[in-house]
Amino acid sequence: MIFRQLFELVSSTYTYLLGCEHTGQAVLIDPVINAMDRDLQVLQALGLRLACTLDTHIHADHITAALELKKRTGSRIAAPAIDRLPCVDLPVEEGKPVQLGSIALDALHTPGHTDGHFAYRMADRVFTGDALLIDGCGRTDFQNGDAEALYRSVTQKLFTLADETLVYPAHDYSGRHVSSVAQEKVRNPRLGGGKTMEEFKRIMAGLNLAYPKFIDYAVPGNRQCGVCPGHLPEQLQQFCPQMAQSPQG
Fold it and tell me: Start and end of every Metallo-beta-lactamase domain (predicted)?
């Protein structure tokens, strides 16, 4: 398998490129619209053809590149079926692997950050979206978020994977690239160390986080599989212009 971890600076989002060496097909997990040209350049350099994009959930902090990549490459759009987005070509359901050549991703419904959130497991790694971050987790106070649901998703699904499973999150804000199930079970300050559900709920209730600055544009745009608003306030315009390069992990 060909694997690349790509980082988008504005929203601190990781996009994951998985390529099948036998068929030349590739999938991008959580592509970001303003990093689309960068992703296409990486695909070309590796001699891969984008077969589909795969989002973990309806994002509130960036616009997915799914629709624009479909226009440019003919790739199909895969996303959780539970969200019932009319623009999706491949509705994802738990128990039905996403298969591309030699790439097989097991879909795990992991609600809590959003009600339609999915993680994707492949062999020795799991792409956890916002459900489980390195030393953290996604917030649970919008988009039908639910702290109890997130606790169950992490402790009963993600933490039951093999300890050596690599954890690749959708975001990191401290320059970290990868963790493991064992590490998060032990030291995650919100969910690790044997935290009870009541402890987790108190932690999440006490975060007092600011209202997401891009959510009112991102969520409607992502319900259309990635449509950037025509008129953004000046302070938010950085979320949509194309960039060609960014750091890679």
Answer: 12-171
- What's residue 235's pLDDT? 87
* 97 vs 27: CA distance, rounded Å: 13
Residue whose structure tokens are 């929203």: 11
pLDDT of residue 79: 98
Q: What topology does CATH give the domain 1-107+212-241?
A: Metallo-beta-lactamase; Chain A (3.60.15)
Which architecture does CATH list for 110-209?
4-Layer Sandwich (3.60)
- In the chain, beta strands by DSSP E: 2-8, 13-19, 25-29, 49-54, 76-80, 90-92, 98-100, 103-109, 118-122, 125-129, 166-169, 179-180
Gyration radius of the chain's alpha carbons? 17
At 248 the pLDDT is: 52
What is the residue-wise DSSP string for 17-53?
EEE-TTT-EEEEES-BGGGHHHHHHHHHHHT-EEEEE
pLDDT at residue number 249: 45
Closest CA to 128 of 37, 16, 212: 16
Q: Where are the domains of the chain?
A: 1-107+212-241, 110-209
- Taking CB atoms within 8 Å and a gap of at least 24, the contacts of 205-208 are 205/147, 207/139, 207/141
Q: What is the pLDDT of residue 2?
A: 96
Equal CATH topology for 1-107+212-241 and 110-209: yes
**In this predicted structure, what is the pLDDT of residue 247?**
53
Length of the chain: 249
Name the stretches of the chain with pLDDT < 50: 244, 249
